[in-house]
Amino acid sequence: MNLPEEKPKRGVSWRSWAILAALIAIVVAVALPQYADYAARARVAEGLLFAAPYKTAIAEITLRLDRLPNAGELPKVEGSSPAVAALELLPGGVIRIRFKGHRAIEGKSAELVPLYQKAGQVDWKCRNIDVPVRELPAVCRQP
Q1: Rounded to an integer, what distance in angstroms lies between the CA atom of residue 107 and that of residue 89?
Q2: Which CATH code fits 17-141?
Q3: d(CA 119, CA 67)
Q4: Nearest to residue 82, comparing CAs of 65, 106, 104, 63?
Q5: What is the pLDDT of residues 93-133, one digit of tens each?
Q6: Environment class of 30 (CB within 10 Å of its CB; exposed 0-12, middle 13-18, buried 19+)
Q7: Please, how many CA atoms are within 13 Å of residue 116, restricted to the half-sphere of its CB?
Q8: CA distance 110 to 139
Q9: Which of 96, 97, 90 is nearest to 75 (CA)?
Q10: Where do the domains of the chain lie?
Q11: Strand 94-99 vs strand 109-116: parallel, antiparallel, or unpaired?
Q12: Helix (H, G, I), strand (E, B) or coil at 47
């Protein structure tokens, strides 16, 4: 009696699919939090970049006056950014940025503080108010 020959099975077994699904789940579990941190850091960096024209204006005023500007000598804040809820120019040329656009930084603030040097030169220091440290760019993490 001749039995029909069994053909080798082709295709992918359910075990292979299960292993693939598990690997994808592990990759997603690791990558998603990292992406969320990256997105928040990008919003903070965008907010700091939005303040750049005001940093330049304050530096120019400081060079002209040979001192940091008072409240009445500061430029008006104009424009908007998807990362900035509010930008305030405070006496002494301090720029306060309140962030928006990501749940980790929503309503949180940081300040750019001018440091007057000789010959009208202005250096800037980033001062964190309440932004989570892991969301800050490297320039703002330094004490």
Answers
A1: 17
A2: 3.30.700.10
A3: 10
A4: 106
A5: 899 999 998 999 999 999 999 998 877 788 999 988 899 88
A6: exposed
A7: 16
A8: 12
A9: 90
A10: 17-141
A11: antiparallel
A12: helix
DSSP string, 36-47: HHHHHHHHHHHH
C-alpha to C-alpha distance for 77 and 98, rounded to whole angstroms: 13
Residue in 89, 69, 68 with CA at minimum distance from that of residue 77: 89
pLDDT tens digits, 49-105 = 999 999 998 888 888 888 888 878 888 888 888 999 999 988 888 999 999 989 999
Backbone angles phi, psi at 106, to 5 degrees: -55, 120
Kindly state the tokens that stand for 65: 């006056």
> Which tokens hold the place of 62?
């400081």
How many alpha carbons fall within 13 Å on the CB side of residue 27? 6
Question: Letter for the amino acid at 71?
Answer: A
